[in-house]
Amino acid sequence: MRRITLIVLHCSATRTTQPYTFRQCKADHLKRGWTDIGYHYYITRDGQVHEGRPLWKVGAHCKDHNRHSIGICYEGGLDATGEPCDTRTKAQRQSLRALLERLSSQFPSAIIMGHRDLSPDSDGNGRVDPDEWIKQCPCFDVLLDYADLEPAGLLDGTLED
Question: How far apart are CA 92 and CA 134, in angstroms?
Answer without folding.
Answer: 24
